[in-house]
Write a structure and sequence with these properties.
Two copies of one chain form a homodimer.
Chain A (H helix, E strand, L loop, with lengths): L1 E5 L8 H14 L2 E6 L1 H11 L7 E4 L10 H7 L4 H10 L5 E4 L3 H12 L9 E6 L7 E4 L9 H17 L7 E5 L10 H12 L3 E6 L11 E3 L2 H25 L2 H11 L3 H11 L7 E4 L5 E3 L6 H16 L2 H9 L2 H4 L6
Chain lengths: 341, 341
């Protein structure tokens, strides 16, 4: 299996990207296709000592920066690393693409080059989050679409159902709608209308899910618009970071230092705990609704996060997620969804 | 100072409410006016041993339950504990009111009985959250208005500015807009239009604030619609609970038990850490924009949370928050806000 990797995208590119790809090649037997400026990629490959591993390099002279307007940048920089990486999938050379660069540009390239699946009006980013029970929850949209209509949320539910079923192996995923209360009357105008459609659908719709339930596995798929999804994800990330910092600050001073001595044996479990909440462990988020597998990794991805994002790309490609979404749209589940077109 | 307390509202009412009010009377010298079913309130007062403390009881035979439609319930149950408690403020008998009951009913009673401040179209719930640095952040709206227009968000900013200035003592509060990215182009339709108005205002507007910045004190006031605010608050609450549970589950088994032995000296700091993130420590959330001080406490409030909510009510009443909002609307800050009417 070949995975195209945008070697120039991300805060720690190309170093962390190349290193993560090499780890993935070694650990999973995958063949990364590193797309970007060859001289810089090859320098990193030598540093890591990729040696005998099968790693390819494909040239792309341009890089889309974080501050650029995605659509405009994609038009102006036709040979950007993200566009050329997505092109590898379009041409059938790679099975999937991974990027930790500009999310908007990755989405734009996916839409322009691979195209959206007929029946899905808005592709969505699906974030796979850990829960207390250990079974993951799929939150979508995690940031692709800031303003959504009810039918978009319903389409997110359908795509989340497929992903949870095919990739996470959950037989009948419970689909919930993120809202400001469990009761049916709770919600904003868009979510209340979406709930009406979802209730009539063949999806295993469990109704409204509150923010506090997200991490307790009350639903396998949680649907929201991309504005809310992004804010929620970043709040969670910030809160975990804040708790860590509070712990660290509590361990200063002479009393803290004394306590730190007792803390040493705790390091193992503490690492496992943070690991469960660490986005780096969970790899990237698939962009669902386009004709191809595209994984969006966190902009701050380190080598471990990239390695895990490549594993997520392999999983989605192995399970033919785009093809499954296409057949679901023509299948029984979608028959009851008048909003699919 | 007299504070009217809805003794029948909340998951642990009237027990926790009465107990919290008694603690507030003892600790802060306040005079609670407990509103509800006298026999039940008096039984709790005897249990706690209120004895020499000045605590009043005002009869209200009805209780609005959590599942009821707020407006309908307020019409049908004219002598509900929440309505009678708010009435105490309206009649000038109490300086403020506290309720841990149905949030919608508390808001409705506040609006109907006290009325909204002219110029503020939508009253908002302001949650005061802890940050890593120790300086609190005011998040509003925390759940009163699910669908907002840009001018509502601007009005929230103005009210948050007053609250942070008067009650929290922050001289020139930095007002941020919760969004899906720091850049000006990020946001949904409503937040982008609100940012335009806020930029031209006399508020100390610092632009977009991301979810991850919320707990790091990058702004003193963070504005969002009530749907997003509620989801964010409950996600944070759920995440803190999830982290606690993961810690507990890691401490099971023989290895865990061994570690628990080492953990004992940590209990003190751990309590302080959770305390900083615990809504019970931070008391209730003021409902801003009505002609009176109304504090909304968490439905799951225990006695300590009620005690702290009463303290929050005392603070807001001492600083004449409603009067300050009224003068701000007629002052220089609002002059540049065409949306105030």
């Amino acid at each position: 299996m070949r995975i195209a990797v945008d070697a120039m995208g991300g805060d720690h590119a190309p170093r962390a990207i190349v290193e993560g790809a090499v780890h993935a090649a070694r650990d999973f037997g995958v063949e990364p296709v590193l797309v970007g400026i060859p001289a810089r990629i090859e320098a990193e490959l030598r540093r890591v000592g990729a040696g005998a591993l099968r790693v390819q390099v494909v040239e792309a002279p341009d890089v889309i920066e974080m501050h650029e307007h995605p659509a405009m940048a994609l038009r102006r920089k036709r040979r950007s690393s993200i566009a050329v990486a997505v092109q590898q999938v379009h041409e059938g050379y790679a099975d999937a693409v991974v990027s930790a660069g500009h999310t908007g540009a990755a989405m734009g390239a996916g839409l322009l080059i691979l195209g959206r699946i007929k029946g899905i009006e808005r592709p969505a980013i699906a974030a796979v989050l850990p829960t207390v029970g250990g079974r993951p929850v799929v939150l979508l949209d995690a940031g692709a679409n800031v303003d959504c209509q009810p039918q978009h949320l319903v389409q997110f539910g359908l795509m989340g159902d497929i992903y949870a079923r095919e990739v996470l192996g959950i037989p009948s995923p419970r689909v919930g709608l993120l809202s400001n209360g469990e009761e049916d009357i709770k919600g904003n105008d868009v979510t209340i209308r979406a709930a009406g459609i979802l209730r009539d659908s063949k999806l295993n719709f469990v109704g409204n899910v509150e923010g506090k339930d997200l991490f307790f596995g009350l639903a396998d798929v949680v649907v929201c618009d991309g504005f809310v999804g992004n804010v929620v994800l970043k709040c969670g990330e910030g809160l975990v970071l804040a708790i860590r910092q509070i712990f660290t600050s509590e361990l200063r001073g002479w009393r803290g230092r004394l306590l730190a001595f007792y803390l040493l044996p705790l390091l193992g479990p503490a690492r496992r705990i943070w690991g469960r909440l660490d986005y780096r462990e969970h790899g990237g988020a698939p962009l669902l609704g386009i004709n191809g597998v595209c994984i969006i990794a966190h902009g701050r991805s380190n080598a471990r996060a990239i390695r895990n994002a490549i594993r997520a790309a392999m999983d989605a490609a192995t399970h033919h997620v785009p093809a499954r979404i296409i057949s679901a749209i023509h299948g029984e589940k979608a028959a009851a969804l008048p909003c699919l077109r």
